[in-house]
Amino acid sequence: MLHLYDTATREVRELALREPGRVSIYLCGPTVYGPPHLGHGRATLVYDILRRYLEWSGLEVRLVSNITDIDDKIIDRAEREGREWSDITAKCERVWFTAMEGIDVLRPTDVPHATEYVDEMVEMIGALVDRGAAYATSDGVYLAVEHVPGYGLLAHQSLDDMLAGGGDREVFGAGEKRHPADFALWKFSKPGEPAWASPWGEGRPGWHSECVVMSLGLLGDGFDLHCGGQDLRFPHHENERAQAVALGREFARHWMHNGFVVDAEGEKMSKSLGNVSNLLDLIDTYDPRTYRMVLLQSHYRSPVSISLTGLEAAGRAIDGLDAFAARAAGVATTAPDEALMAEFRAAMDDDLDTPRAMAAVFDAVRRANSAIDAGDAATAGALTAAVMEVCAAVGLRLEGPGEVPAEVAERAAALDAARAAKDYATADAIRDELTSQGWTVETTRDGTTVRR
Question: Of 10, 82, 230, 325, which is the most buried if we count CB atoms within 10 A?
Answer without folding.
Answer: 325
